[in-house]
Amino acid sequence: MTARFLSFSDQARERMLHGVDILTDAVKVTLGPKGRNVLFETNMGQLRVTKDGVTVAKEIELKDRTANMGAQIVKEAANRTAEIAGDGTSTSTILAHALIHEGSKAVTSGMNPMDLKRGIDLAVAKAIKHILSKAKPVANHDQITRVGTVASNNNKEVGEMISKAMKEVGEDGVITVEEGSGRENELEIVEGMRLDKGFISPYFVTEKNGLVSNLLDAYILIADHKISDAKALINLMEKVTSEGKGRSLFIIADDVEGDSLAAMVVNHMRGVLKCAAIKAPSFGDRRKGILEDIAILTGGKVLTEELGSKLEDLNLNELGNAKRIEMDKDETMIVGAKGSNQSVKDRCDQIRRAMASEDSEYEKERYQERLARLVGGVAILRIGGSSEAEVKEKKDLVDDALHATRCAVEEGIVPGGGVALLYASKSLKRLKGENSDQDRGIEIVREALSASVKAIADNAGAKGELVASKLLDQKDQEYGYDAAIGKYCNLVKAGIIDPAKVVRTALLDAASVANSIITAEAAIVEDDTAHEVEEDEEDKYIGTAYDNY
Question: What is the pLDDT of residue 208?
């Protein structure tokens, strides 16, 4: 069995704190409009440049295992914030650092760590309540542009592109970010329902100049099983043909096999009936949901074996309808679906209710994708650049900005520049715990809430302590420091705004990981040679830690 090294109490916390310091120092420099870039080498030896806090945090691994434990715990806060809110990772890291530092000092001085935790939890809940009470709904697309611009390091082009995409696809639309192939950023708006499945056979191609299949005025057969009854399918094809030469047949099924597929190909190539088929997207219960979505959108029904439905009994009025079907080998678009608007609206409401009751962020995203398909809103942001490293860096920033704008629409906006947290500290002045140790926990949060403003000001070359002190004397809670130009102003009017959800999530996650370290009494790691370093060599030890992340 591998040998283990144990450290206890103050020794464990002190060494974990070294790791927290290292991680925070690397992340903190990226915060604010005057934040710096961080260069790092990937495992493949490639150079990358980024100003994205969570990307920096992900690259940090310390040689000292106990110190690394502290760094990884804070990294967890940043990752969690990124997963839920998409932005605010640097803020989360800086807040966690401030809470851990003062909390560890309090424990070392003899205070009860559990009471400190209770005090921290009380203060965080109060501060979040204050932040949400000050949040204002997004009033117009100009504010969305500003949120996107601020989150992308004041890149107005990115802010405008995100705002335009959100305007085009609507509240329920899906926006994806991809690496482009050119130098310029591109925005593509996709109309209709997009499915990530292409035609089953290349013989369904209709365009001679490319592998594309287009069907006009199409009947749509939707089945949750394989189509293998050639006789029944041919009978259906004859019914479609009898409707007129301009009609076509499109099939979405688990698969189309053998003679059934051959019958479709022969009729298509001879011009008797234009037709094509794709395999149903996704799998399991999610596939069933998507097929039902398609049926409602197109005004058809799902042919399902579970209910005893048979292809031979199918009538044309049970098929869906669409003006046009566009396919290639990878994806399919259903354009001009002819389902009932009320049925589509009811289906959207049903999906929203299911999404609201879902805890998993992954499942929520899948529901959101289904909503977007139903309302026909999909936008693709393709990020360009002059090098692979530049494209990756810009894509990270656009991802952050996109998440930030979504959060702004969801929970509203608050003044940016860290002042929403700073002014929330005022709400804690009269908050009291059950004892003096809990009171100290509350005070620790109150002090930590100024950390973000201080870091932004410091990165801009100002004195963070002086900036924070001046702002706390103000009554106007929208008043703040514009680090981009080095002046004080009303931040909301200046367009410097943050999504309330980003600020709330950053504080909540920071407090969670800070409590983990503050209440830790032991750390167990694999054999760790770094524990042999003497206390009087602390400076040398810290330097070594930096050298080996």
Answer: 67
